[in-house]
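Lest this sound abstract, we let one protein speak, letters for residues, whole numbers for local backbone shapes, and leave readers to judge:
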Amino acid sequence: MSLAKMPCILVVVTMGYLAVIQFGNFLSIGTYGRWRSESLDEVYLKESAKYVRAPVNRVRTWMGLDANDVVVRGSELYYLPDIEHVMGRSFLAQRRRNSHLALKEEPSDERTKSPLPAILDFDRELREQGIRLVLMPTPSKAMFAGRGEAPMQNAGFASFLTVMAKHGIPVLDLAPHFAEREKKGEPLFLKTDSHWTPETMRLSAELLAELIRERGLVPAGRTEGFEVTFRKVTNEGDLAVLHYGVEKKRWRETVTVSSVGLGEGPLRWTPAPDAPVLLLGDSFTNVFSLDAMNWGVSGGLGETLSVVLGFSIDRIVRNADGAFASRQELIRQRERLEGKAVVVWQFAARELSFGDWKRLPMPKRGSDASDDPGGEGAIEIAGTIAQVAKVPPLTRAPYRQAVMEVKLKKVSGSNGELPAELVLLGIAIDDRKPTALSKWKAGEKVKVRAVPWSEVEKQYGRLHRFALEDPEYELLDTRRVWMVQEP
């Protein structure tokens, strides 16, 4: 054997030896043992876990552990992306392919990763219209899994706060306040769900109202009467459904939720388009408000913030995709900026690592895009499917209902004023099962009955939506209709 080959052999032998040691620790007292022995905080707090995180997760998947992105720890369930956000490298760090810190990115991952350009653009465009932006990144259960320790933040969060402060963008950092609540022995999050408890949500609304008042972002003196009632709700959370399936209901919990009404009548709270505050939110805003989430109605962040502030607010909310979904809805409903003094942007903290931070062009106040297909009531529409939204496997989408978008071309119908192209929306998942709509393919010809989207938006607009890919924003002004039924 030549001496030139000796260094290579030594490297291979050394790497193999270290791999055996690492795998032995993993199976005995290492990461695997700790995850299963409920010492989850030890795993989080080990600095070296940042480097072995991805391989460990892959091995767990091969072994059939923590399937469907759910991690079991004692009597609580955790969402794996929340853990990965906390454990991962800084979301502000530029990723390099084949880096020792990050696995090679998937070719299909074309999202805009850094949140800074989108947030700074959004703030600038709102300021041009005399509106202030407030950010509310919402902590996850994973941040507080280290019992008795300080909240665990992604390595880039402190720098993120510094950048926002430099640009004068208020950020409501909820983690320290949550930590104080946890010290008192009060639960922060639902055991079987990825969302906060009603009490934690109310605390967040109070802190948000305090920030808005202290900054002088809304006029004083507005007061309205609200009637708040309370009731108990028993449910299995989204993580229980995702992990065990809808048929296995071994994980259930009971909480006390509120319901906000207007005045003395039975009317439920509704968004006020003429209010000075607009809340953009995701499922954290929706969880105690949207009936489809099974945790109550009319008692979410928007309703509770109205009670705390003393006046109704406006709200645009979509489950999931907090990095862009609510902003897209705002662009489609441009008139909602009229009379606004402040826009609160609530999104799950994990979006900072995994969200698609698109830079969306903000409209000026007063412009509007009509979704009226040109007539009252349901009309027959025929067309060819030009594009369908992607629907992920149901094992990774634990929604009771979800909406899907379809682009139609060569449109014709009973109303001669129809445009040549439409965006058709309809139920793609019902009772957590796919509908016929979810199986539509591009190129097929369809005939449906539909009504203007504006007629049903209050009922279906907050559901999770599988949206069409539209990187050039060509569909923002395309008319939208709702599929009532297939004739």
About this structure: Residues 227 and 266 are 9 Å apart (CA to CA). The radius of gyration is 24 Å. The first helix runs from residue 6 to 27. The longest strand covers residues 401-413.
